[in-house]
Design a protein that fits this description.
Strand content: 15-25%
CATH architecture of the largest domain: Alpha-Beta Complex
Shape: globular
CATH class of the largest domain: Alpha Beta
Oligomer: single chain
Order of helices and strands: EEEEEEEHEHEHEHEHEHEHEHE
Structural class: alpha/beta
Number of helices: 8
CATH superfamily of the largest domain: Medium-chain alcohol dehydrogenases, catalytic domain
Helix content: 10-25%
Length: 342
């Protein structure tokens, strides 16, 4: 058991877009491993856009982080020492360990043993983790998506959006995605199988482009961007359309009082539109069944995913900040140590 480990902490509350200077990499002692606890070494860690909502000192759906507190995030890890009968040395787990080299747990909270090695380890904190499960339950439970409907996905090249669009295709929907840049748009069309993709960076009139791609209107808007996008699409919604609020990446760096509001709310009455957000852990009892189905699709090659891997814990802050500059393509992961099976 190592005596110390390294972790990233919040150095100052974030104003606007995050920068690496908002975070600090520090060494901290591990101490003795008490009864009922186990120690894991992180193999891969995630950087998540939703973390931004906790970094400015105000609460969101999760409590605000304090200065000096460790940055949260999901990870794949290997148990290397255990005083907990439920976790043995050598077990691989997906958990909320944060941006760090090691973490100690008593087994409570979100921890899942990884037994299916047909898919890359990174999938368990990507397409089979919170991003993919958000897409699964957003499409199936919240949107109640149906064959023959039109689905519009924003931030479609991200891990949530890309998965939501592919689930829509499997359900028999016509799927239109919005993404930024020719590389992302080509991947969505050629690999993920979207019916149409709009490059918002190349469109002088995005609303007109959405109308052209969805001439009969939108049944389901799966939004990962924020209020400005939702308000843009609301007038294009069909009767009894559904808006799934999955994320708000464009609003995370804007103070609440400065965020764009919704003006086109009459559509909720005239077209009986329903808008609902989700926190994926509401569906935790159904995670296993959803993951089993998606793992089968990954294994047979019919569910595509993209992973960007950064080398070393030192890269975590920069990898995170790049999310808000639109640099990411797929799920961003940080390689902290090697897969024991490699």
């Amino acid at each position: 058991m190592p005596d110390t480990t390294r972790r990233w902490v919040l150095a100052r509350h974030v104003e606007g877009a995050p920068t690496p200077e908002d975070f600090r990499l520090e060494e901290t002692p591990l101490g003795e491993l008490a009864d009922g606890r186990f120690l894991s070494r992180v193999i891969l860690g995630s950087v998540d856009p939703g973390t931004r909502s906790r970094l400015s000192g105000g609460d969101s759906y999760a409590g605000a982080m304090k200065i000096g507190e460790g940055i949260d995030g999901f990870c794949v890890a290997e148990v290397i020492e255990s005083n907990n009968p439920n976790y043995a040395v050598g077990d691989l787990i997906a958990a909320g360990g944060g941006w760090r080299e090691h973490f100690v747990s008593d087994g409570r909270g979100f921890i899942q043993k990884i037994t299916d090695r047909r898919v890359p380890l990174g999938c368990w904190i990507g397409i089979l983790g919170v991003p993919g499960l958000t897409a699964w339950f957003g499409m199936n439970r919240v949107a109640q998506a149906k064959a023959g409907e039109t689905l519009l996905v924003t931030s479609a090249a991200g891990p949530v959006g890309a998965t939501a669009g592919q689930i829509g295709k499997k359900l028999g929907m016509r799927v239109v995605g919005i993404a930024g840049g020719p590389k992302k748009c080509a991947w969505l069309k050629d690999e993920a199988g979207f019916d149409a993709v709009i490059d918002y960076k190349a469109e002088p009139d995005l609303t007109a482009a959405i109308k052209a791609a969805c001439p009969e209107g939108v049944d389901v808007l799966f939004d990962n961007v924020g209020n400005e996008m939702v308000d843009r699409v609301l007038p294009l919604m069909k009767l009894r359309g559904r808006v799934v609020v999955s994320g708000q990446v464009a609003d995370y760096n804007v103070e609440p009082q400065d965020r764009v509001g919704l003006k086109n709310t009459s559509v909720f009455i005239t077209h009986r539109v329903r808008m609902e957000g989700l926190v994926v852990f509401d569906d935790i009892r159904q995670f296993g069944a959803a993951q089993a189905q998606m793992a089968d699709w990954i294994a047979d090659g019919s569910l595509k995913f993209a992973i960007e891997e950064f080398d070393g814990l030192e890269s975590a802050a920069e990898a995170f900040c790049g999310l808000f500059r639109g640099e990411n393509f797929g799920r961003r992961l940080v390689r902290v140590s090697q897969d024991p099976a490699a």
